[in-house]
Every structure is written in structure tokens, then in C-alpha cells.
């Protein structure tokens, strides 16, 4: 499945672009991806966290002359216009603030019926974390919670935490992505893989906490490999709702959105919500259920411009303390400080050695967002697109007076005949096999021992998971496809093509009594972060891995099941009492053991 909101905190394509920009300017120094690619995430580094009040770490910027109205430079205008014309942006809303003045511009693809406007609603994805962070800051100011309170303090004392270390983690680690939680809850089994979080309920989130035991290093460990997690913001929102004894959307509206004058922002789908787009296709809207605090907000350019203006001049706001507290760095990431939902890094200031730029960017299933400001120049910028696109390089470039990045590549329309030419069996340099299959204009790729990845065409010979956590570039020898290069987890590995046909193992189905099928149903753990849910489906079973669509399976032998292509299998083992005791999962020719999960219900 395609999960495009990896929430782009320090993840996916945007992260790599920004980190490349760091190498050029050291002073400058980030929804989709549930599924297994979502677990390939970038790193964050921990820092001590104590304070619950804003720190006056910098003196106010000296008064400057009145600023002129912001202007959209020709170079940036060309980028926006070209991106709209070539389909990289389906629709783009741009808002700039310079002192007391502000301007807005709107761009769109000529195929659209209408341009977006200031009241058009967009999904803002992981930028929702900023508002959840402000809510946490306000709760701290009101004395409802302290930033260094252990998580266990926000649930009843008899709550059966499975992981005592997680229960003792500070609340602030959720807002700064330092908790060490996995990218998504292991018990996320979407009924609709195109809207994967929609049905996830608070009871399931609590069940996850009552059963999850972390074995990866904690945030304070030097060898930690945990990065952004949708769980962080989602869990924080749910816990704050419990502190105030109300649901999170109502709480955020009453405590943050209404006081900030953001009357057109919320979690429902308004009539003015634009359609999303990705890979030259329409993209469904995403809904986050109990994890709404991570990425569920919809907002407009007008609302977000008002929000940025209040951040530039917070003195008159009733949320002044929370706004200032939220932007204070609490941890250190590879690209600068990390506040309560915000990214904060230093740039040369107008009259100071350095000055903080505060920003957040996100890409969801069909939308992109950038929000940023710097108070020394009283500058702010909001970029909203109803297309999955890279906006962080543009936003940071503008705020840091850098030359704009190159014009975005045109939207690439996949071709079914072209996709079919990439199918086959490939062998990676590390010896693992990769099976590539075509499915219309898309591809699927399966590394031996791993579940299937869905890949969309992004350029000729280039296919990627939505969000870019994994990218495959096919290699040509004249006109023949001879191999591929797989990019994932920050590394590259090449593969040679062994066959032009994907292996297929057809197995004759046998009939299994419906009552006996029920014996196999249940959840099985591959590891701490990945479960497989086995369900009955009439005359067979289905296997559904964490965050993915279910796979139909038919019986091929006693206690053995396989999918239609023979690429995935379920082999059950029985104990001396003839009861199902364990499961061996076949994934692209590789085998992995899975143990039954017996859920504790809180």
C-alpha cells in the first residue's frame, strides 16, 4: 500500500534534500507510509528535557524600518508557475508576510477547473504536530501536566503498561519525536488500505500500549535508530484529551484553534477541501482516527497566515506563553533544534550573530505543507499544495535568502506497457532476491523475507513508494533492463536481473471445513513492530501485515496456505494437543517465524 504521510519531520525525500543543503551552508543546517517501508525512518538525537516555561534565550530584535510589502521574486515565481504547468503542483497556494504587510498568490495546472484560493482547505499532515505541541505547552502553563511527567501519570494508575521504560518516558518526548516508539502501531490493520488510519480507535491505541514491549534502544542511547513516529503525536493528543476529559478534536479547537482565530481549521472534511493528487493520480483523503493529533488537521491559507502572524507578534494573544514555549528547542536533531512540534535552527540574523528560523513541513497522501517564520525580520511563509511535492527546500530557501532549488520535475504519467518491461527476478549484491511484478501502471517489489512494497512511477526507469522511503531505479544495457539500484534507509544496493519473468508457483487449492478455518484465525508477531493478522474469508484465509492491505490465501495442504502467485504463504505448526502453536510465514521465498499474540485488554 502507499503511505505518503511519513510525516516528513526528518524523513523521506524532503529530509534528504535538506541535508544536502546543509553541506553547502553549515549554518542552515522534513502523513504514507504505514506498511513496512514506513519503518525505514530517519534519525533524531536526544537531549535533556526539563523546562516547562519559555526561556528568554535571546533578546528582542531591535526595531527596524517599516518593511515593504513582500514580493515574489521572479526566480521563485518561475518555479511555482513551471511546477503548476508541468503537473508537479496540481494547485499551489503561497502566502508571504513581511512586517505588517502580506501577499498571497495562487497557481494551478491548466487542467484544473479552478485555482485554489485563501479559503480552500488542504490536509496539512504532520504539521498538525505543531498545534498538538502548542496544546501541550498550554496544558503545562495551566498546570494540567508537566513536560517531564512520565507517561504513566496521564493514564489510570492501574493501567497495565507492558513496557515500564516507555511508561516512565517523559511526556515531552512525544512532542520532540524522542520516545523511541515505532513508526506506527503494530495493531494497525486498516479496513481500507487507501485510508489506513481512519478506523483506528482509542481502544486499539490503549491495547497497543498494554501489549507493546520495546527492544530497540531508547532515545538516550547512542545507537538508537528510531525516528519519526505517527504514534508520538497521536498518543500525545489522546493523552491530553484524557487529561482534560474530552476528545482531542474538541480540545484542540477550544484551547488552540479558536483562540488563534482559526475558524476554518479542523479534522472534518469541509466542502472546500481540495482533492489530493500523487503520481499523476487522484489521491484519497486520509483520516487519522485516534491518531489525529499526529497528522489529521485540515486548514486554509488564510487560517495559517493568521497563525504565522500571531507567532511573529504573539504579545496580544492569550496563548502567548504557549506559542513561545512550543518553539523553544527541547532536543537536538541532525538539522537543528526540535521544539514541541517545530523544527528550530539558527541562521545569521539581521542584527545578531544568529537567529532562529522556526518551521515545519509535511507530505501526506496527496498534499504538501510548509509553514515557517523568523522574527528578526518579521518574515513568514506558508506553502500549501494539493499534490505530494517537496516544499521544504523552497520554504527554507526563501527564509534563508538562498537561491531557489531547481524547478520541480514534471509529473510522470506511468504506462502499463512500460511497467511490464521491468518485471522479473533480481539478485541484490548482498545475495537477497527481489521479485518485481507489474500491476497496471504500478509495480510491486518484494525482497526475500519481506512483505510486498507498492511502487509508483516517478520518472522513466524510476519507481518509489509514496513518500520516497524506498526508491528503485532500473538500469539499462542499451534498451534492455539489466538490473536495478535500490535506495532505502539512506543506503544504496545494486541488483542484477536474473529473469525477465517474476517467479510464479501455482498450487492447487484444497477445501477446508469452515469450522477448521477458524482455528487458524488470530494475530501473530513477526517482531515487536510487525504483526500478521490471519482472518477467515469464506472458503479461505487472509493475511494482513501491520499497516497493509489484506492478502487472500487458499489452502494448498493441511495447515498450509498460499496466495494466488505462491509468493506468500502461511504454514501452521501444531502442538501435542493438536492446537495451533506457531506460524511460519513465507515471504518471497524467505521464511520467518511468528508466534501467537494473546492480547491483554486494558
What features would you highlight for this structure?
single chain, 602 residues, alpha+beta, Beta-lactamase, Lipocalin, eight-stranded antiparallel beta sheet, eight-stranded antiparallel beta barrel, 20% helix, globular, disordered N terminus
Helices and strands in order:
Blueprint (H helix, E strand, L loop, with lengths): L11 H13 L49 H12 L5 E8 L2 E8 L12 E3 L4 H14 L22 H4 L4 H4 L26 H10 L18 H14 L4 H10 L18 E3 L2 E3 L8 H4 L2 E3 H12 L7 H7 L4 E3 L2 E3 L4 E5 L7 E9 L4 E7 L4 E7 L6 H8 L16 H5 L3 E5 L4 E7 L2 E6 L5 E7 L2 E3 L5 E8 L2 E9 L2 E9 L14 H4 L4 E4 L5 E7 L2 E6 L5 E7 L2 E3 L5 E7 L5 E8 L2 E7 L6
Antiparallel strand pairs: 1-2, 1-12, 3-6, 4-5, 7-8, 8-9, 9-10, 10-11, 11-12, 13-14, 13-20, 14-15, 15-16, 16-17, 17-18, 18-19, 19-20, 21-22, 21-28, 22-23, 23-24, 24-25, 25-26, 26-27, 27-28
Helix pairs in contact: 3-7, 3-8, 3-11
What structural class should be given to the helix and strand makeup?
A: alpha+beta
CATH topology of the largest domain: Beta-lactamase
Oligomer: single chain
Q: What is the straight-line distance between the termini?
A: 30 Å
Strand order of the largest sheet: 2-1-12-11-10-9-8-7
Low-confidence stretches: 1-66, 218-226
* DSSP summary, beta strand count: 28
Q: What can be said about the biggest beta sheet? A: 8 strands, antiparallel
Determine and state the CATH class of the largest domain: Alpha Beta
Radius of gyration: 24 Å
CATH superfamily of the largest domain: DD-peptidase/beta-lactamase superfamily
Count of distinct structural domains: 3
The helix fraction, in percent, is 10-25%
Overall pLDDT metric: 85
Going by CATH, the architecture of the largest domain would be 3-Layer(aba) Sandwich
Q: Could you say which overall geometry the principal axes of the C-alpha atoms support?
A: globular
